[in-house]
Amino acid sequence: MSNLKDFNWTGFWKDTDYAFESYIGREVTDEDIKNAEAELGYTLPAAYIELLKNHNGGVVNKNCFINDDDDCVYITGIYGIDRDKKYSLLGEMGNEFWISKVKYPSIGIVVADTISGGHDMVFLDYRECGPTGEPKVVRVDQECDYSMTPLADNFGDFIKNLYFNIEEITDEEFQELSDTEKVKLLNEQEGIDFKRAMELLTNIGIDNLSPILLSALGRMYNNNGRAAEAIELFERIDEAHRDWSWYYRCGYAHATVAFGESYESEHVQKALQLIETAMKMTKEDHLDKQLGWCCEVVKYLLTQIKPKEYKEDYPVIFETIKNLFDKKNSKETIEDNHIEDANEYEEDNYPTYDVVHWVFNKQTYRREEFSKEYNENVKKYVDDDQTDDDDRLEEPEILVTYEAWIESEDQLFDNERVTDEELLEEDKEDGMWQVEIMAHLVADNGTYFTREELLFKLHNLMANKELGDHVFFEGIEYEGHECEGYGLIDNEDGIPVFYIVCGS
To answer: More exposed terminus of the chain, fewer Cβ within 10 Å: N or C?
Structure first.
């Protein structure tokens, strides 16, 4: 249990006229608390009672909740127990209203509302502890069939993890936070204003930033096209504070600067050296997600170099990328693994087709034209042992899905369908719908697709649609089997469906 006896309430509440009118109740007594508990049927947690005695509900200045799982919720106010106030546990828009009228699940007590205006609410969750125990805190989302997201193990921890919105926090309030809190605030808020975030750090003074804050600022520079400045910041961090994230972020910065340069260039070599070290460290610590990030630096930023160039100099990079990205179809895999679940086998063994760096554009190609340009890309970017013949998609027909913007359904080909239930004119943005499209493709030879054939057909499907800045082909992902495909097929056994991954 986490109490709030020593909590610093300075700046926590926003005592506006609206707050006094709708949220803030009269000073509470022990009798008030006992009566509220009797009416609600739950014992209120000690931390919540401490809050009530400090402030009987109210609108909060610290309105951004961030937990350790990167969940971010924006709070409007916290409910008190004065039934004369509209937004209180016993008031007009209190616990009874949300559960009986809006049909939120009866798991405990609605304790806070959010900026969504009732489309998601914060609950004290008594399901595990019972009505007299210590409840957890969860977010319940009406828009997602009342799904529940755990926020905190107790109410005290929930309050302690409320922060100022980064657009509203003052330099003074920011500097009062610990370095860990500063980083948490900067890293996890949704839709963050990076200009303001960087300003909060630079106003402290670069020379005054700790290693963790230098790293945070360097990360922002990386994300805002300031890689050279990021490198300068990372180099300020001493050896003792250089963990896997330092090597990854610094490697990312060098790779960005090295875009378009040859294998021998200084920045390419520096990027590879750093990423090699980052991979070793993530493997030692079993950080699989972070290991994937390291792979992406080489795959998608150092696109001008081939794996055979770094195979001997950087063996960890070579083997890791080969194992994670370049899975092949193999009869041996079928015979040796004895996989019972067909979908599991197929997901592990369908090719990903991410070795060719192709850019989708508005040109519709004839097969000969496409083949010429495609083969130029193969010679430039693909190793000799990664040819089409060794990377076939052993299916006579498939379904593919991709995202695009269209002005009219007339842009769809006969072998395409929009997966949305209905396209309404009022849903258009700038005259276009953002849609997911499913397409049915048949192999020319009736047996299998080569990489070239599949990419040719995908390109001509997409050429008459708007892809925004997501025009870089990054491979395909197996999503399962489909029997009908929105009317495109009628196959009781189903055929495989692949999602087309496009990056910016």
So the answer is: C
pLDDT band at 274 (very low <50, low <70, confident <90, very high): very high
Taking only the tens place, the pLDDT of each residue in 315-331 is 999 999 888 765 433 33
CB 277 within 8 A of CB 324: no
Query: Is residue 9 a contact partner of residue 52, using CB atoms and an 8 Å limit?
Result: no
In this prediction, residue 388 carries a pLDDT of: 46
The pLDDT assigned to 282 comes to: 95
Largest CA distance in the chain: 85
Closest CA to 114 of 191, 60, 189: 60
- On whether the CB atoms of residues 297 and 280 are closer than 8 A, the answer is no
φ/ψ (deg, to 5) at 119: -80, -15
Whether residue 490 is predicted with pLDDT greater than 90 in this model: the reply is no
CATH of 17-163, one of 1.20.58.220, 1.10.3720.10, 3.40.1580.10, 3.40.50.2300: 3.40.1580.10
Name the one residue in this structure whose structure tokens are 């992902």.
477
Pairing status of strand 397-406 against strand 495-503:
parallel
CATH 3.40.1580.10 residue ranges of the chain are: 17-163
Superfamily of domain 171-325: Tetratricopeptide repeat domain (1.25.40.10)
Which is more confident, 348 or 324? 324
Query: Do 82 and 44 touch, CB atoms closer than 8 A?
Result: no
CA 142 to chain centre: 21
In this structure, are residues 233 and 218 in contact, taking their beta carbons and an 8 Å threshold? yes
**Residue 380 confidence (pLDDT):** 61
In this structure, are residues 122 and 67 in contact, taking their beta carbons and an 8 Å threshold? no
Distance (Å, rounded) from C-alpha 105 to C-alpha 123? 10
Q: What is the pTM of this model?
A: 0.53
Q: What is the mean pLDDT of residues 53-76?
A: 84
Phi, psi of 471 (to 5 degrees): -115, -5
3-state secondary structure (DSSP) of residue 474? strand
Q: What is the Cα–Cα distance from 147 to 303, expressed in whole angstroms? A: 41
Residues found in the chain = 504
Q: Which of 112, 115, 160 is nearest to 138 (CA)?
A: 112
Q: Which two tokens stand for residue 413?
A: 């080909």
- Mean pLDDT across 197-215: 92
Q: Which residues of the chain are in CATH 1.25.40.10 domains?
A: 171-325
Pull the structure tokens for residue 302: 């150092």
Q: What is the CA 38 to chain-centroid distance, rounded?
A: 42
